[in-house]
Amino acid sequence: MKSIRLAVIEDEESHFKLIRRAIVKGLPEADIFHFRDVGEFFESFQQIRPDIILVDYQLPGINGMEFLDRMRAARSEAPIIMITGQGDEQTAVQAMKAGAADYMVKRPEFFLLLPGSIEREIRRKKERMWAERSLRASHSFLEIANRHSAMGPLLDEFAAEIQRIAGCDFAGIRIPDDEGNVVLLACAEQGEGFPEAPSPHSLPGMCVNIVTGAVDSRLPCITKAGSFYTNDATRFFAEMKEKMAGSFCLHCERLGYKSIALMPVWVKGAIMGLIHVGDHEKNKLPLETVSLLENAGMVPGSAISRVQMGEALGRSEKRLGFLSARLLQAQEEERKKIAREVHDSIGSSLSAIKLGLQLRVDMLGKGALTAESLGALVSVAQSALDEARRIMADLRPAILDDMGLLYTVTWLCAQLSRVCPRIRIEQVIEAEESDIGEHLKIVIFRIFQEALNNIAKHSLADRVEVSLINGQGTLELIVRDNGRGFDGFAVSGKKKSEKGLGLTSMRERTELSGGSFSVKSSRGMGTIVRASWPAEKG
Ligand SMILES: Nc1ncnc2c1ncn2[C@@H]1O[C@H](COP(=O)(O)OP(=O)(O)OP(=O)(O)O)[C@@H](O)[C@H]1O
Ligand SMILES: [Mg+2]
After folding, report:
1. CA-to-CA distance for 538 and 437, rounded, in angstroms?
2. Which of 353, 490, 464, 360 is nearest to 412 (CA)?
3. Segment (H or E) for 449
4. Which residue of 337, 478, 486 sits with most ligand 1 atoms within 8 Å of its CB, as the best mutation to test the pocket?
5. Ligand 1 centre and the CA of 416: distance in Å?
6. Helical residues (DSSP H) of 259-369, grouped into ranges
7. What is the pLDDT of residues 348-363, one digit of tens each?
């Protein structure tokens, strides 16, 4: 079947023959339908559905302008090229205004120019239709984006809409997880589905390549925007098998998909995931559809990232709420503890001094006061002073102000060794005291102190590695132990009253001071606490 359906309405047989000869020569892919008058044309119009119409301006009983009116009323989208024996400029302008795509005068060069003009108008029509489809797709994506603030329903609706636009059996949205697996998060499918393999991307695959931007853009299956598409997957995968010798993920092939496309989902110039489309038939994904989804695919990217940010904000607000409640409680507990300590230590020493002094005043009255009896009070006063120093050191570590953070880190390690002699500690410090802002020093001190407290309290480790490194624009503190580790889910699932404050407050201290925090741990595999901040510009 030829690819262009051309209707020619021309009453003069000799003219039509010349036109036909020009078209057969210059545009062999055109199928020509000839009509001698407009009535004949309208009778078959719905049946032949022409891609383009060539019409003589002066036909018996109707002129070009009237013909254009009738075509508009019939809601035809086919471009119309008007031809005329003696053209005048005014009629040409009028015809173009009324919707004609071109207006050509039958001069000698007309037959030479005609095939090019037809081709151009068909191309324009395709571009116009593509732009309209693309606009409609963006519009429907925007509507979906506006409707949802939760990730699940948002992705589900996007997937369903993508499937509808592509007209394929399967459409899905994939986003990489922390391990780099490009996980299928939502899909819409018709007929046989797309069951997820247990670990679909432990092997290198096109999905991973697209997400990491690692595709060779010179390959014919890769578009300018970095999407992959094939309309004959069997052939593509056969070549892939030969080249990669089994070390390439061929999941789509096993499921029988013949037409496959993978289009990146962009957010602010970075790829955050991909749109995955597939069909069990060949040739279901023309480049046009791929570029349409690439174009409209900008909307899902920003919507997904907006929802991700909203969810992260919600989580952070919840954490902050929990933390501030716990902080108030901790503050109260701390006050009670200080009051008890002041009462039990300094308070009792001062009471002893007061009683002793009263006794000495009496002795003085009786003339029995001796130097030894006064001397005994000095050692009580000294122990009150020592207690006061200890309490102050707990409240604000003077060592941090006096000796600096780097020394204090070493000092805290020595304290841990004293409390847990079985633990061997290795330290790597590659930072200068002057590189670390004053406000960060107390933050790092508290995080480090809590990480070591946790090791002493929970880890049963015998080896700890500590590093504080300022390099490549980042100041990073890492505390790693080889202890029994813990299950993060089990800890976060604990009741509020049973939950410790340490991990949460380490995270909040880091994030409130502009850094990022992570804890990696699993049972039997030790624990890694990592806090990092962008290095301060000198
Ligand atoms: N280094 C570690 N090794 C093993 N388990 C750990 C380690 N760090 C934390 N945990 C586990 O994580 C839990 C939460 O730690 P977190 O510091 O938040 O609370 P806590 O130490 O129990 O109490 P708090 O810090 O408020 O005194 C601990 O109860 C412990 O089970
Ligand atoms: Mg703790």
Report:
1. 10
2. 464
3. helix 438-454
4. 486
5. 16
6. 287-296, 298-341, 348-365
7. 888 888 998 998 999 8
